[in-house]
């Protein structure tokens, strides 16, 4: 459908003024809303969550840990407070709350060095937190044994450094010599926004942490023992590790070569007493990850993700693995969804897992004795699943497009659950609109599910302009609350926001993914247009004022839309793919994408048919290009090339560039500018208002 030359006089050309009662109406209020994540469950049933808020200067978000009542009877209570913040909460068996923080050590004195991230412990009865594990390069993460309380930490280590003292010496020598160079001998060299090397992650045995001295005396520092001394750059020993309940075994993901320049993950068991290791599961056709021990430590459940090929997308299943024999058994055979985050029941007779399902991220249970997985929840998206030790309850964070994440309590067996949130920081009042579900049928008969956010006051007499938002991934779906792409910010300004799940979206079956595999410009594009057509059939949505937006894969699709149709008045493309050949060769994991697209020299067909840059001459729609320079997943060269191609063709366009952001926009100031610029660009081209340049750019 082409864009009309003129707008009907019967349609209003301005959006209603934002209602100041809503925190989404003022961006300063929006970025200040507390953000909940990181749920942890203590053996005695206490809950802790991580809550992000603005720091005193309002220049960054910092996390603090809060206590949440698992019964929902009392209000939440803040547990930690420091300028650097605290994250990654987990409980030891005695109720001690462990967390990672770069807060200063109060016992280090005024002459202490700038603090690195360390493992801290907060006593179960309250009081002052204290650092329990430190490393010269900081602590990246940790695992705690459910029964013994033994601890393993992940931390970067320089090649050849035998202990912490030598680690410090090597780091100081580089610093004193002014050396920042890294010599790479294996692929990859970058990951998301991090340069790999020269240090690589190692896993260190800390054992039982020292108890707090009743007299207040400072305990001796924990002596760490390297369980992975042979780990080398670029990937090292990884940071994903779990301990058996008794602390006797460490299970980690090991990255191994998969063809020239490729990598895949296998599972390795380490005897923590000796450091001896053996491969538990190694599948040349799949990656193994997301493992968890059974309560008695005799079994492991993990995700098996098949390696992609030119012809086939990945598929996922759960494997049950016997620790002693390494024999495996598939738990979800025939289940046409992608299981993730498995955990054993308290009794060890079943496994809980999460999976995308029809625009939701649902909780499932599968019995070890056999049978199909049973879905326990209806609406919403669940994460951070926690199983009570006595089997009486499950806890998780639940969100939806009309609810930010909040902790909930669930029954371990009941179906049809849609629990109310427990009292926690970050609760919101009424939203500036309503959430609806839209379904449409594509030309090939596939059903396309979408979410539609409608602003307050929308009606047939006052239809809302429509924004198409295209998700990233591409192997994901719109199903949960997003602070970065929050439709309610636009709804507060009078826009309807459509969030479709086109071909390649997960949660609709393997065939639905196959429809777009290697043909991103095919079914994914036509599904999006089908979803838009269905939304525009509503009398309360204005078919004459529309725009399209997307980030990452969604940015690719926004670029593709720009080359295929002029039905939209404006297009916003964030962290987007423009030249597929260039992208595949420069992204941080080129081997992954080349499996789908092929070698551009040997099999150029998919590049030629699906790369938006080849159709740049067709673009007529004004475009806003957004990109961060620290984005290694979609390197900045994609945006620079797109921007140049638009400019030399005279396409009305602007380029919002973030020198210090990555694939996302992670600071409050830049996030505010992101929304301000998007809103101003849409107001100019969709509403016909005069361009208002954001003040600080």
Automatic annotation (TrEMBL):
Pfam families given in the database record: PD40 (PF07676), Peptidase_S9 (PF00326)
Domain of life the protein comes from: Bacteria
Transmembrane segments: none
Keywords: Aminopeptidase, Hydrolase, Protease, Serine protease, Signal
Region (Disordered): 1-23, 68-94
One Gene Ontology biological process: proteolysis
One annotated GO molecular function: serine-type endopeptidase activity
Every Peptidase S9 prolyl oligopeptidase catalytic domain range: 481-686
Family: Belongs to the peptidase S9C family.
Name used for this protein in its record: Dipeptidyl aminopeptidase/acylaminoacyl peptidase
Species, as recorded: Geodermatophilus aquaeductus
Source organism phylogeny: Bacteria, Bacillati, Actinomycetota, Actinomycetes, Geodermatophilales
């Amino acid at each position: 459908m082409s864009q009309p030359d003129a707008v009907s006089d019967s349609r209003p050309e301005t959006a209603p003024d934002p209602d100041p009662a809503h925190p989404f109406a003022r961006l300063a209020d929006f970025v200040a809303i507390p953000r909940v994540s990181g749920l942890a469950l203590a053996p005695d049933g206490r809950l802790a969550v991580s809550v992000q808020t603005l720091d005193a200067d309002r220049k960054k978000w910092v996390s603090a840990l809060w206590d949440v009542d698992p019964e929902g009877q009392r209000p939440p209570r803040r547990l930690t407070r420091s300028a650097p913040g605290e994250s990654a909460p987990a409980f030891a068996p005695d109720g001690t709350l462990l967390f990672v923080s770069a807060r200063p050590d109060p016992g280090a004195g005024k002459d202490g060095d700038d603090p690195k991230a360390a493992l801290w412990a907060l006593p179960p009865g309250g009081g002052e937190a204290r650092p329990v594990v430190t490393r010269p390069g900081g602590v990246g993460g940790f695992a705690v044994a459910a029964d013994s309380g033994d601890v393993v930490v992940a931390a970067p280590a320089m090649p050849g450094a035998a202990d912490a003292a030598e680690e410090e010496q090597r780091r100081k020598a580089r610093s004193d010599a002014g050396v920042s160079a890294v010599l790479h001998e294996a692929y990859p060299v970058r990951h998301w926004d991090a340069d790999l090397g020269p240090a690589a992650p190692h896993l260190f045995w800390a054992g039982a942490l020292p108890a707090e001295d009743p007299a207040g005396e400072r305990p001796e520092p924990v002596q760490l023992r390297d369980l992975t001394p042979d780990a080398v750059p670029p990937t090292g020993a990884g940071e994903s590790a779990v301990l058996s309940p008794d602390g006797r075994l460490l299970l980690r993901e090991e990255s191994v070569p998969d063809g020239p320049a490729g990598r895949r993950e296998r599972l390795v068991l380490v005897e923590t007493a000796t450091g001896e290791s053996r491969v538990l599961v190694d599948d040349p056709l799949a990656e193994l990850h997301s493992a968890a021990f059974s309560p008695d430590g005799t079994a492991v459940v993990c995700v098996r993700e098949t390696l992609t090929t030119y012809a086939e997308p990945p598929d996922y299943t759960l494997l049950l693995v016997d620790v002693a024999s390494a024999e495996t058994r598939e738990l979800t055979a025939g289940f046409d969804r992608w299981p993730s985050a498995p955990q054993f029941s308290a009794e060890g007779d079943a496994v809980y897992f999460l999976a995308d399902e029809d625009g939701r991220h649902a909780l499932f249970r599968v019995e070890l004795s056999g049978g199909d997985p049973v879905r326990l929840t209806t609406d919403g998206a669940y994460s951070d699943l926690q199983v009570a030790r006595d089997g009486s309850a499950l806890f998780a964070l639940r969100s939806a497009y009309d609810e930010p994440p909040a902790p909930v309590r669930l029954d371990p067996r009941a179906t049809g659950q849609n629990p109310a949130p427990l009292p926690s920081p970050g609760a919101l009042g009424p939203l500036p609109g309503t959430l609806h579900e839209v379904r449409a049928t594509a030309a090939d008969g596939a059903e396309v599910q979408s979410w539609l956010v409608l602003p307050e006051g929308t009606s047939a007499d006052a239809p809302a302009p429509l924004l198409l938002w295209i998700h990233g991934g591409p192997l994901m779906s719109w199903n949960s609350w997003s602070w970065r792409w929050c439709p309610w910010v636009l709804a507060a300004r009078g826009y309807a926001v459509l969030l479709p799940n086109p071909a390649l979206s997960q949660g609709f079956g393997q065939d639905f993914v196959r429809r777009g595999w290697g043909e991103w410009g095919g079914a994914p594009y036509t599904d999006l247009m089908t979803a838009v057509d269905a939304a525009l059939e509503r009398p309360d949505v204005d078919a004459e004022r529309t725009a399209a937006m997307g980030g990452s894969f969604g940015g690719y699709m926004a670029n593709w839309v720009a080359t295929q149709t002029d039905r939209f008045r404006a297009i916003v493309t964030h962290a987007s793919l423009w030249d597929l050949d260039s992208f595949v060769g420069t992204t941080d994991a080129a081997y992954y994408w080349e499996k789908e697209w092929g070698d551009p020299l040997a099999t150029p067909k998919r590049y030629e048919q699906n790369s938006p840059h080849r159709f740049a001459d067709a673009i007529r729609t004004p475009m806003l290009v957004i990109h961060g320079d620290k984005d290694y997943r979609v390197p900045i060269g994609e945006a620079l090339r797109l921007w140049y191609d638009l400019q030399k063709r005279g396409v009305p366009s602007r380029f919002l560039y973030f020198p210090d952001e990555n694939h996302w926009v992670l600071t409050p100031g830049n996030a505010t500018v992101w929304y301000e610029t998007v809103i101003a660009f849409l107001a100019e081209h969709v509403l016909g208002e005069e361009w208002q340049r954001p003040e600080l750019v």
